[in-house]
Amino acid sequence: MDIKKHEKVALPQATIDSASVVSFFTEDGLIINKVEYAVKNQLKQSLQLKLPEGTQIWSAIVGQDSVEVRQNKEVIFVPLISSRQHNNTLESFNVELIYYSVHPKFALWGQRQIILPKTDLTISQILWSVYLPEKFIYYHFVTNLEKEELASGLTPILHRKKIKVDLPGKTPYGHRGIEPESRITDMVQSYSRKRGQTTFRNIDISRSFMSQQAMNEFDFDNRLHQIEDKMIQGETQVFSGTGVLPMNIQIPTSGQLYRFAKNIVRDEQLEINIHYFRETLSKAFAWFGTLLVILIIVLLRHHLKSMFFYLIGRLKKAIQITQLTRDIIRLDTLSFTSSFLTCKLGTDAPGVISKLGKELRHAKLFSFIPKLKRERINIRTGRF
């Protein structure tokens, strides 16, 4: 009997339960991102992230403390802490990264790409909110995440599914003025009611995760200014190779919000490609289309006039053939292809339709019998 010793299976030392991402695009080309990982860790010393080209880290926080991030070429190493145990289960802690990148300004039309840092841990579920500038139409999204139904297909081009979201101003930190806590709570609840729900076809987002995502979206601007105030006071530092991110960044207070999600992300680069054009270009195309229709009508007016009189002639001929001239008082035209026949009082409308239908086989005939006061009608002639 042979005894074989099987190889041990290495279990993961750490996992990411969820990842919440909020990205802001400005019309000038600046993209600011806030990523929040819910990490469970036993033995792993650092989280490795492969950054997209041109990315600069602004802030890194693990748990409640700001940490120093080390970088080796495109890979950064974020030190981790160990999870606490509660009822024989590991509790997760947050790892927050805020980073930015600079790109060309938005043009009349074009494409924008945004790439998420690639992690060395498995992410159970990710929810990504993207704020895009107003005055643009975003007609197509190409991504390896699942799109919220709002962003699916080419439907955003129709304006019916274009959603504008208003965000609060700079409150309530430092020299920007302090808002009452009840006021902040009311604003959060109001925002959550407006945009606190989302629909994906194949991914189930829990209510608690969605509420947290809505809070992160709502509080994005305030979070940046919190970090800015701490930088001014010397409580935190910037981890970029080019120096400090310029202060007084103006985050737009409104924009178009689209969400994307994915389950089980393992060794995969997540990205979104956004195709857009400016609203003024859309209006120009609409005016051009209107002028083109008018031009066609003008050029074909003689043919259209002949067709119109041909249709009226067919209707008059059908009335004469069916011997309905005594029952029909008058003939009016409602539009280019629609006419209205007024009959005497007491005329059998279904009978008239039956007779005319034999001569006008491709026409749609309907009867309309209004309820009128008898004293307003001359019973003998059937006229008003």
Descriptive notes:
The chain is an alpha+beta fold and 384 residues long. The protein folds into two domains: 14-279, no CATH class; 301-376, no CATH class. The chain is 24% helix and 32% strand. It has helices at 181-195, 207-218, 220-233, 279-299, 301-321, 349-359; strands at 14-25, 30-41, 46-50, 56-62, 65-66, 70-72, 75-79, 85-86, 89-90, 93-102, 109-115, 118-119, 123-132, 136-143, 146-147, 164-166, 254-265, 271-278, 328-333, 339-343. Strands 1, 2, 4, 5, 10, 13, 15, 16 and 17 form a nine-stranded mixed sheet that branches. A hairpin with a 2-residue loop joins β6 (70-72) and β7. α1 crosses α2 (207-218). The longest helix has 21 residues, at 279-299. It is elongated and about 100 Å long.
Question: What key attributes describe this structure?
Answer:
32% strand; elongated; 384 residues; single chain; alpha+beta; 20 strands; 9-stranded mixed sheet; 6 helices; 4-stranded antiparallel sheet; 2 domains
SSE blueprint:
Elements: E1 14-25, E2 30-41, E3 46-50, E4 56-62, E5 65-66, E6 70-72, E7 75-79, E8 85-86, E9 89-90, E10 93-102, E11 109-115, E12 118-119, E13 123-132, E14 136-143, E15 146-147, E16 164-166, H1 181-195, H2 207-218, H3 220-233, E17 254-265, E18 271-278, H4 279-299, H5 301-321, E19 328-333, E20 339-343, H6 349-359
Parallel strand pairs: 1-13
Antiparallel strand pairs: 1-2, 2-10, 3-7, 3-12, 4-5, 4-10, 6-7, 8-9, 11-18, 13-17, 14-18, 15-17, 16-17, 19-20
Helix pairs in contact: 1-2
